[in-house]
Amino acid sequence: MSTPLHNRRDFLKTLTGLSIALTAPTPSYGEEGDTASFMSKLLPAPKHAGFAMDDYWIWDPSVIKDPDGRYHMFASRWSKKYGFGNWVTNSEVVRAVSETPMGPYTFVEVVLPARGKQYFDGCTTHNPRIVKSGEYYVLYYFGNTYADSSPSFEEDVWATGLAKEAWMHKRIGMAYSKSLNGPWIRSNQPVINPRIGQWDSSITSNPSPVVLPTGQVYLIYKSSPVNYDPPLLLGAAMADSFHGPFHRLSDKPIFSFHSSEKADNDVEDPFVWWTGVRFELIMKDRFGHICGEEGGGIHAFSADGIQWVLSEPVKAYSRLIKWDDGTETVQANFERPFLLFENGKPTHLFAATGSGKGSYQFDRTWNMVIPLKSNG
After folding, report:
1. DSSP classification of residue 167
2. pTM exceeds 0.90
3. Which of 192, 214, 319, 343 has a 20 to 30 Å separation from 168 between CA atoms?
4. What is the tens place of the pLDDT at every residue in 26-55?
5. Which residues contact 188 (CB under 8 A, 6 or more apart)?
6. Rounded distance, CA 258 to CA 265, Å?
7. Quick check: 340 and 328 in contact, CB under 8 A?
8. How far apart are CA 120 and CA 236, in angstroms?
9. For the chain, what is the radius of gyration of the CA atoms?
10. Which residues contact 191 (CB under 8 A, 6 or more apart)?
């Protein structure tokens, strides 16, 4: 059984022990001897791959391989009878399966359906991230509930205020199972709540978990001091097991790029991993002030999961996609990045994307996949 972690000093001691114990660390980008940028590892993306459904908006890819060699994608979907903005009021977490990491993935089931307004996640489930901890598969996500009736297909939930109410009730939840086929045991309470009067007093969402070799879970999450207006900020927490409870590793956000003059300089959608010697992550540069492209990605690393350093070069990915047929497109959005690791190496980058007139003005969305060059 792991020793409880109650403060930053305990956490740093744990990381020091892990660094010494792991003799074959996961390869990372930007370490000494590897001067190539994360972005240089991206290969052309296959068309007609990933996961899409004709009648649904699709978002939030998270992929894991089962013992039989099949790939399971956990994703978010909501009916296209609603507008795209209804992700915050009508999303549900689903599972799709493929024989290869590229796909295409075939829908199998709804994993986390609406279950009643009395639950913190009774109306909406979104942002799934799947990990393995011992004999259990663990699914982190955010859920919300709201008092008003479910919206009609015609309702503009952002104009009526329902979306804003739902946003403010976002909380990170957890479900676990011994099988990717379920059944899933859902937590009846959030695993991490906002803190009144702190920088993260509004919500908890966008979970990005790492299960360490000790069984402890490092988790990055998104919040803000007030509401959905920028800046959105990221924090770090730790638990002795996937069940929680989670303890903050710092009373401050781990990334603060904004200023009083430039509130719209922030990040979201982190994907974090442990290399055996340090943490690394990729995440979305919302307004492009860091990497030079609105909605592009940035890469960073950290020895302790608290103090982070931006890579050089910092850019991790772009909305400009090179396809395997030689064409290029600028996607309306490229979000919720997720890396698939096999045999300790990152092999594929997944992301939610869409086509349309502009950012969040979609005619179609899907979860796409980009293969990566092998390291070395």
Report:
1. H
2. yes
3. 319
4. 334 444 334 468 999 999 999 999 999 999
5. 119, 120
6. 5
7. no
8. 22
9. 19
10. 140, 172, 173, 174, 239, 243, 244, 245, 246
